[in-house]
Amino acid sequence: MPRTLRIVLSVLVALVVALVGSAGLSAAPAYAATYPTLSTGATGANVTSLQHLLTSRGYSTAADGDFGSGTQAAVQAFQSGAGLSADGVAGPATFGALVSTLRQGDSGAAVQALQVQLVKHGASVTADGAFGPATDSAVRSFQSAAGLGIDGVVGPATWQALLGTGGGGSTPGTTYDSLSEEQKQNARTIIGVGQDAGIPEYGWVIALATAMHESTLVNVDYGDRDSLGLFQQRTSQGWGTEAQILDPVLASKAFYGVATHTSNPGLTDISGWQSMSVTRAAQAVQRSAYPDAYAKWESLARDIVAHEA
């Protein structure tokens, strides 16, 4: 084979390998937030989107924003059909199975679920189920603001950022009674660690509000980049190993600043934290891209403390 032809073939092979490799990398989701956990009694935009998503999968239910017995039954039916635990609680696994990738030209109830979320985040679109130019523009604007790839395609990362942030009503709950047992147990752990460390009650409130915002009090094994667990702590930022971060007790200790497995400053290392607002104190530890988001969970955090302390 002539030398020139061998060189051309080598270059072509290298290009194919590079293209295949980059396609594989782009297929890996870079989650920007976590799906919420919704159960009976929850209300708001996230519930409305859940109801539209159920309808899109053939489990029709009224999109009234109220998680009642009808929505619970539809969730259980979907979970059973999808091979999930049929507990009637719409958590990350259920949302992950419900959502589908959407783009301009699509239509139907799933698009309505998307449009409800866009409106929740301030977009001026109509929830008519038609993914047209206005919806495409709103999606791209949201992706830009959320630090996502701006392609107008609504995949897992965009869905999670939409559902997991913003004003979703009582998502995943505004009262202690609206929380799932898993959320309550994680809340008990956070409070217990604070009690054992001699941290005042206000510290528990800050920790609970932080965990509600970061993970909806669900010990998730995914997040933005290498973020994990209740507080979405990152191995690359020195919060510990994956196993340590996914241990609710150790993660709570790290947040409070009483852990031995990380030297990162926690709440009690922040000078004057007891006189700070919940948002300022949480942000001092977390250094979040959404520093104003913690405050909305203060009322629920105090309700949890009132029930569990």
The chain-level structural class is: mainly alpha
CATH top level class name of the largest domain: Mainly Alpha
Summed up, the domain count is 2
N-to-C SSE series?
HHHHHHHHHEEHHHH
Strand content: under 5%
- The gross shape turns out to be globular
Query: Average pLDDT, to the nearest integer?
Result: 85
What integer value in Å does the Rg equal?
22 Å
**Beta strand count:** 2
How would you characterize the largest beta sheet? Answer: 2 strands, antiparallel
Terminal Cα span: 79 Å
Low-confidence segments, given as residue ranges, are 11-32
CATH architecture of the largest domain: Orthogonal Bundle
Task: Provide a descriptive summary of the structure in words.
With 309 residues, the protein is mainly alpha-helical. It folds into 2 domains: 45-164, Muramoyl-pentapeptide Carboxypeptidase, domain 1; 179-308, Lysozyme, CATH 1.10.530. Helices cover 50% and strands 1% of the residues. The protein has helices at 3-27, 45-56, 69-81, 92-98, 109-120, 133-145, 156-164, 181-196, 201-215, 242-245, 248-256, 278-286, 298-308; strands at residues 227-228, 233-234. It has a two-stranded antiparallel sheet. A hairpin with a 4-residue loop joins β1 and β2. α2 packs antiparallel against α5 (109-120). It starts with a helix and ends with a helix. Residues 11-32 have low confidence and may be disordered.
